[in-house]
Amino acid sequence: MERMNYRQQPGRRPAPAPQPKPPARSATVELAKAVLDKEGAFHQFQVAMTYTPWQRWGEVYNAEKGLERGTIFPVLDLPFAGRRC
To answer: Which string of b and e fits 11-41 if b means at least 16 CB within 10 Å?
Structure first.
């Protein structure tokens, strides 16, 4: 007996093609989305872009003063403002 393809066999259809999977999201993104959705706040946020200028190399503190101040760059040595913006 000759072998028949699916078109020749009555009532048989080919298996559907597998659908591509959506890209995987990180657990952090999923958690943030779940929390924001629960609070109804997820759609309040807009997509944003940031701009961070290149830092130019300049004067630096010595190691001892840098450790004391928390930075070796005097231009980044700013007073702590507490909760104030």
So the answer is: eeeeeeeeeeeeeeeeeeeeeeeeeeeeeee
The dihedral over CA atoms of 39, 41, 47, 48, expressed in degrees to the nearest 10, equals -90
pLDDT for 38 beyond 70: no
Distance of CA 55 to the CA centre of its chain: 24
- Region 8-22: what's the mean pLDDT? 71
What's the pLDDT at 66?
Answer: 93
Q: Measure the CA–CA gap between 32 and 36, rounded to whole angstroms.
A: 6
Cα dihedral sign for 16, 20, 26, 30? negative
